[in-house]
Structures are given as C-alpha cells and as structure tokens.
C-alpha cells in the first residue's frame, strides 16, 4: 500500500511539473508574439484559391499572417492564436494583416486577395484607420479585397457584423464566411449576413470522395449557398479524387495543399521583384 501511495504521489508531482513546464512555455510564446507584433515582425504567406472547373485559373489568393520570432523563424499560429484572440495583440495582428494585404493589392493590380479578421476587430479604430488609409491611397484595392470572418467569430456579435458588412460592401469590399460548418450559425442570422463567399470547413472536405456522410452534408451546404447567391470554396483539398468529387458536386472554387501550400514567395510576387530589379 505504501508503495502504491508513493507511486501515486510521484505521478502527481510529475504531472504538476509537466503542467508547469507547459504553462511557462505558453507564457514565453505569448511574450514572443507580443514582442514581434509590437515590432511588426510579420509577413503574409499566400495560398491560391482556384476555379474548380478551370483549376489552371486563380480565383483569388488568401493572405495568411505569419508572426516571426527574433531569429526570423515563424511562430506556429496554433501555439498562440486562441489565447491572443481576445487581446489587444489579436487586434494588432488583424491591423498588420490588413496593412500588408492592402499594400500587396496596391502593388499588384491584377491580384484579388482575401485577408482574415476577427469580428472583435470591428469597432477597433486602428483597424478602420488602416482600411481608410489603404483605400484612400488606391481606391481600386477595395474591389479586389475580400475579408474573411470565421463562422464562430461572426456569431459572437451577429447584428454588429451584419451592419459592418453592409457598410463596407458599399465600398466594393467582399466578405467570405470562413470555416463554415465548424460552428453553430443560427439560420435567422444567416439570412441577414449577405456574405459573398462561403468557405466549407475542411472537416467535410478531406477524403470526401470516400465519405458518403460528408458528401450529403456538403451538398446541403451547397444548396444553402446557392439559395443565398454565394460562391463556394472547399477548404483543405488534398488529393485528385476529392477534386473530381467536389467539381462534380458543383463547388465553385478549391483551396488546399493539392494546389499549393501557403508561400511567402508566390510566382507573381517573384516576377514583380524581378521587374523591379531589372
């Protein structure tokens, strides 16, 4: 009995030590992220979104923010994105993503680009100042800018999101509902949102060619999108079989590693740099 108690006590101590180590690691990560954001040590990685029936043609790119540590390495978003979502750092990241996205659009007139934002950034004055400044510098970027809001984020303050979208859509900006199916959208709000693009969460897309349940669910999502006149994007497309299945189902656009991983050096950006140095 004494041996068993000693073993249990040792396990608790080991468990407490591990929990403390993880807490310290997370705290260090958040500190690094906060420091990096304050010094604007961020960049965008670009992932293509292609037309389903003409995958050689780009519909648009998604610009994904990357936060860098002091050595220039990317800090994995999974290590910090949830804890900072409700913080000032989260709002600053949204501002930096928008700032870099607007600059990229201004420098590349043929580009259409989606940038992520949280509904929590609505009403954050620095974010709106960043948008106004970018549109004033080049009014054409508004018609090529897509703002992506996740389903979970949109449902935090649906009435505010609806008004916010209505105001910015008048300025030519489009909106995408990201990760649809991952959250719990109330249909009474969905009728009022007026999103231009619906992005189907990857949990329904991976290996959809071999999953009858996800095929039925995706068909239902496509029917909703069609009813509300929204373009559809399937996320996390990773193999040719899924491409064929999704195209046959009528998805408008496809995004995933099958077509390209996020990269900080897309072909169009490399070409622009080459022309600038010529």
TrEMBL record:
<protein>
    <submittedName>
        <fullName>EAL domain, c-di-GMP-specific phosphodiesterase class I (Or its enzymatically inactive variant)</fullName>
    </submittedName>
</protein>
<dbReference type="InterPro" id="IPR001633">
    <property type="entry name" value="EAL_dom"/>
</dbReference>
<dbReference type="GO" id="GO:0071111">
    <property type="term" value="F:cyclic-guanylate-specific phosphodiesterase activity"/>
</dbReference>
<dbReference type="InterPro" id="IPR050706">
    <property type="entry name" value="Cyclic-di-GMP_PDE-like"/>
</dbReference>
<dbReference type="Pfam" id="PF00563">
    <property type="entry name" value="EAL"/>
</dbReference>
<dbReference type="InterPro" id="IPR035919">
    <property type="entry name" value="EAL_sf"/>
</dbReference>
<feature type="domain" description="EAL">
    <location>
        <begin position="26"/>
        <end position="276"/>
    </location>
</feature>
């Amino acid at each position: 009995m004494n041996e068993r108690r000693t073993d249990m006590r040792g396990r608790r101590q080991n468990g407490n030590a591990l929990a403390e180590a993880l807490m310290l690691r997370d705290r260090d990560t958040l500190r690094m992220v906060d420091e990096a954001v304050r010094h604007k040590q961020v960049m965008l990685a670009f992932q293509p979104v292609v037309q389903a029936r003409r995958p050689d043609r780009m519909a648009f790119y998604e610009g994904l923010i990357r936060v860098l540590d002091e050595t220039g390495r990317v800090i994995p978003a999974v290590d910090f994105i949830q804890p900072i979502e409700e913080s000032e750092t989260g709002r600053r990241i949204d501002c930096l993503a928008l700032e870099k996205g607007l600059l990229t659009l201004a420098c590349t007139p043929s580009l259409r680009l989606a940038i992520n934002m949280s509904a929590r950034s609505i009403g954050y004055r620095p974010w709106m100042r960043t948008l106004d400044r970018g549109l004033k510098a080049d009014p054409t970027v508004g018609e090529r800018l897509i703002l992506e809001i996740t389903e979970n984020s949109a449902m935090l303050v649906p009435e505010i999101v609806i008004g916010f979208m209505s105001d910015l859509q008048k300025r030519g900006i489009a909106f995408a509902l990201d990760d649809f199916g991952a959250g719990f959208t109330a249909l009474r709000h969905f009728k009022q949102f007026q999103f231009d693009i619906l992005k189907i969460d990857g949990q329904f897309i991976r290996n959809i060619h071999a999953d009858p349940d996800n095929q039925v669910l995706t068909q239902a999502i496509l029917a909703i999108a069609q009813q509300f006149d929204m373009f559809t994007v399937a996320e996390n497309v990773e193999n040719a079989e899924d491409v064929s299945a999704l195209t046959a189902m009528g998805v408008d656009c496809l995004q995933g590693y099958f077509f390209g991983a996020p990269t900080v050096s897309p072909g169009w950006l490399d070409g622009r740099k080459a022309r600038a140095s010529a």
